[in-house]
Amino acid sequence: MASNSKDHDLNCLTINELEAIAHDKMDKQTRDYYNEGADSGSTLRENISAFSKYRIRPRVLRDVSGVDTSVNIFGHKNSIPMGVAPTAMQCLAHSDGETGTAHACRDMNVAMGLSSFATKSLEEVAEASRPNPNVLQLYLFEDREHSLKLINRAKKAGFKAVFLTVDTPFLGRRNLELRNQFKLPPHFQVANFSQQEEAALQDEAVDGESKTSSRNLDPPNPGHYENGKWVSPSGRVTFHSHAANPTLNWERDIAWLKEACKPEMEVWVKGIATGEDAILAVHHGVDGVVVSNHGGRQLNGALATLDALPEVVEAVQGKIPVHVDGGIRHGTDVFKALALGADFCWVGRPALWGLAYKGEEGVKLMLKILSDEIRLCMGLAGVVNVKEISKEYLAKIDKSGFVAKL
Ligand SMILES: Cc1cc2nc3c(=O)[nH]c(=O)nc-3n(C[C@H](O)[C@H](O)[C@H](O)COP(=O)(O)O)c2cc1C
Ligand SMILES: CC(C)CC(=O)C(=O)O
Q1: What topology is assigned to 7-203+239-405 in CATH?
Q2: Where are the alpha helices (DSSP H) in 224-348?
């Protein structure tokens, strides 16, 4: 486990340093879009600070010479208990975009989630990933035909699962995005939608005078909600309105999605934040849940994901896997999430910062940093295999600063 300076990028040894470097590499619109949370951003900040409520209880004299950080996920051996979460429009950070992320994940043997609103097509990303397993993040449109096409393409391209994002009945209010009048520059494309589909989406969104612009990402500002969609004063329904679908519900949509995805792809729900919904997820037969609040970009004031995790773990009682994302910035964060019962973690923004720093190489660097930290943390905590990580290794600090075993 010894390392020396030639194994490292001495300009960037931590995810916090990567964030600082990326800050200066991105234009303001991109930086604001990637980095902000909804409203005051308190949930975004608490996703990160929640990890500092826990301390690790290290065990010693256990022969940790053979630390194994790998886990099985989607029938594949992942080198670490962590993957790259789906985030939209990665070409804004670097022209390598989602295929750069896919190459980095493949080289590091790490699973990747691809956003429905990627700037590279799912076929290109599947090709760049092979043989690494991928997950397609899905926003289920009101018109099922568009979603069905995407699902069938994902099956054909070899995706292992869909993550249905369920924390987006409406889009959260992101003030900088509104103020900047966020637009995807015209030389980039939302690559998973063809011209014809775009036209069809426009027809679908016709609402009196309203039309969508699925490529321009026109700003939903100033505007208002109408039938659950952002409508600008001109009456134009924006691209963003397609991600949000307030009609989704357990009974109708999960059954539909399971039918559409079988037998090739598993169906997971991403955006679970309570034990009650975790029980419903099990009841409706989903294959797994991701405890997530969309990186604090949706309901500000919602629980930090690390704080929501224990109730979800307790509710599912091991019947389905529980993954978590939000605020993970260090290998010890992954260890703490696993100790609280998560089976696997995902990171969102760190991959975007890696892309902004050096494209594909930057994402690889981000994964190397976190990989090294996970391995070191396990070794120093006296754990050889990921399965051994349990709440026995954690203590929690209460409000008065008292540290107690869990
Ligand atoms: C810029 C950006 C775009 C995102 N796009 C999507 C998306 O298209 N679909 C989705 O389900 N989640 C999306 N997410 C949420 C991530 O999948 C993930 O839940 C979140 O980033 C985890 O928090 P972290 O960034 O603190 O690691 C996005 C997050 C960011 C920061
Ligand atoms: C196109 C957006 C709706 C993608 C997203 O989920 C996000 O920005 O958080």
Answers
A1: TIM Barrel (3.20.20)
A2: 255-261, 275-283, 305-316, 331-339
